[in-house]
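User: Run a structure prediction on this.
Assistant: Running it now.
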Amino acid sequence: MHIFLTVMLVLVGLEHLGICYLEMFASTAAQVKAFGMPREFVERKETKITLANQASYNGMLGVLLLLTAFIVPVDAVVIVAAMLFAFVLVVGIYGGATVIKGIYLFQALPAVIGLLAVFLAR
């Protein structure tokens, strides 16, 4: 497996675990800053529940990316990585269009670089 692909799987995996942390455990102030939402909105019980639910998806995505780097059989890594990075890209594009533009930079761009790593590893 190409080392660049492994690095991208680890970086994007850790990024999604970080997003999970922000959504589930971070302070309201950190969430307001990270997600660009009004404080009053973030403090609502319904928002906290929604963020925690979303965190479970980001956490599992982070775990799957890391498992792909270290557990998935070498002959399947490129296929699994391509699917995961494609998923991250689609979600990043949607998030950038609907939440804050910074998601393009912090989520979609790493997915594009990850897909480039996939193609280089082929």
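The CA atoms of residues 20 and 88 lie 14 Å apart.
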